Amino acid sequence: MSAPASEASDPVEADVPPGSPVIAWRPVLVLAGVLGVLLLAVSARYGHHRDELYFRVAGRHLAWGYPDQPPLLPLIARAITAVFGDSLVALRVPAALFAAAGVVIAALTAREMGGGRRAQVLTAASYAVCPFVAAAGHTFSTAALDLLLSTAIVWLVVRWARTRDQRLLLAVGAVSAVALNVKYLAAFLLVALATGLLVSGPREFLRRPMLAAGLLAAVLAVVPGLVWQARHGWPQLDMASAIADKGDFAGRPGFIPFQLVLTGVFPSWLWIYGLWRTYRSDGLRTFRFLGHAYLLLNVLFLITAGKPYYLSGLWAALWAAGAVEIERNGAPRGFGRLASATMYAITGITTVLLTLPVYPVKWLADTPQPAVNADAAETVGWPRFAAQVAAVYRTLPPAERSAATIVVGNYGEAGALDKYGPGLGLPRAYSGHNGYWYFGRPPDTGGPTIVVGPDDVAEGAGLQRFWTDVRPVARIDNGVGLDNQEQGKPVWVCRGLRDTWTRLWPEFKQLS
Questions:
Q1: pTM flag (> 0.85)
Q2: β partners of residue 433
């Protein structure tokens, strides 16, 4: 009996790989466990990242949305704090677990492509030593959970392409519902995967009722956040523009090169090989949509000046494709050593030295880590920062001190003063940066304002728009010579507010 025309037209409909091999649980779990234990072992070193300080406070101001993100991460931060207290280690445990779980999902992706023990272990090892995975797994951030969820989405789609079990389409929708409440960027991954499937198949997902159910779950989950965005003038779009203008990772010229850095200089060849083989190998024909999705996202994020790690959800699948091909046909000539245990051990050690807080903090400025992983520098110096602001506060006459307010330049600084300020006798700090602007404006006390930033004295002339008397009185110094966003910032005492905070506060609003 011949197949219906609609099915016969699907180029991969009759090319479904056979059942998956046995899962190599022992080596895969060892790799996941080593990564998780390592991340937990260093979780208390240095201090909070600025984003973690922000999430602590955002968790006390729960909303359906924020100008820089959907609502889920602040909600999780609130839950962790409520259950385990205000603990840095407790806040970072989920990130370590997310990274370890990603190792397992990466191996399962290789299995779905027909990979046996070697392919699964090679894929899991590539994920485990990936510098971006280690860096994201060290801090509680949107990147940590987004990486896990986007990797899981790709795995589920790969599994559906192999089995055509339509229940997996509902699972994709459910995971997407969570992912879209971590980062709206998950929508681009979903569109890219769907486009890849439409181009090269299998296309039968369009005929499955569970697709509609999965889409409905994802849409319903994101509606509250989109309503919040609409009511507040779509600040997420302005945020995307601010990110593009900042030009992190060397902007568009660095978009491709930094993917090699973030995935590991040596393991990066494997996902490149996997990308190529999705187009060349008959054994991977079913998964050719992954290549289409990856190339489409590259074009999209190059045009929009996105960041190279926006494609991180596809890295595990591309590693898996390369590993499966190596298992079946051997490594390409000259690349065999790059797939060896020795090379992965070297990469793992390099990843630790470049991404994790393994140095004494006084040595950090003299290592290459801050240049490679700038986030490391943003975890140092917060207690000292708060103490220096408190020292300025104590120089005020008692009458002024009781009416003084504090305004700082970014949410990390405001979050640090929220964390350490009460113990130093400081009043609440305010900031116009991102979501912090929505957390409230300073009260009209009539007293002076301690201002941290702008970055130098010359830029501080702009403060005279808001105060009649503006004087620099100190500079922030983290004490270890580390060049981060706060180092060297002037601290000002400003008097004579020109208007009420109700009228002036909108001018302090900034997105970056």
A1: yes
A2: 510
